[in-house]
Amino acid sequence: MDNSNGNRRKGEDPILETATKSTPKPGDYPVGSMESRAAARSILKNKPKTVIHVVFVGGSEDREPLPPTKNVSGSDVVIEYSYEDTDGKKRNG
Q1: pLDDT of residue 10
Q2: What's the number of domains the chain is made of?
Q3: How far is CA 45 from CA 37, 58, 70, in A?
Q4: What DSSP character marks residue 27?
Q5: Domain range holding 68?
Q6: What gap in Å lies between CA 54 and CA 69, rounded to an integer?
Q7: In this predicted structure, what is the pLDDT of residue 43?
Q8: Dist CA 47 CA 17 (whole Å)
């Protein structure tokens, strides 16, 4: 219970409220249940991709073609390639 200053008494746990609605977590359900597995899939589905930018700096006018953008199999990692001249200007090929 709050005292006259609006502070909680020692030993009382405040009710935690999140600023935004959170998604269900696998731990909210029994281990191995359909709900637990669905929550885990939902988290993985909504996870943002990790993009790795590989920049080749300098070089001559006769450059090799850049490798194509690569999706790393079995993960949400994407690798992108570009050239950058010594003056700091990016080139895509």
Answers
A1: 60
A2: 1
A3: 12, 38, 19
A4: G
A5: 26-91
A6: 10
A7: 83
A8: 23
Torsion of CA 13, 43, 34, 15, to 10 degrees: 10
Three-state SS annotation for 16-85: CCCCCCCCCCHHHCCCCCHHHHHHHHHHHHCCCCEEEEEEEECCCCCCCCCCCCEECCCCCEEEEEEEEC
Identity of the amino acid at 86: T
Residue 75: partners with Cβ closer than 8 Å, 6 or more residues away = 50
User: Is 19 part of any domain?
Assistant: no
Place of tokens 């935690």: 16
Query: pLDDT tens-digit profile of 29-88?
Result: 999 999 999 998 888 887 788 899 888 887 666 778 888 889 888 788 999 998 887 766
Letter for the amino acid at 71?
Answer: N
Of the candidates 39, 44, 32, 91, the one whose C-alpha atom is nearest the C-alpha of residue 63 is 91
Q: Residue 78 corresponds to which tokens in the numbers above?
A: 């994407």
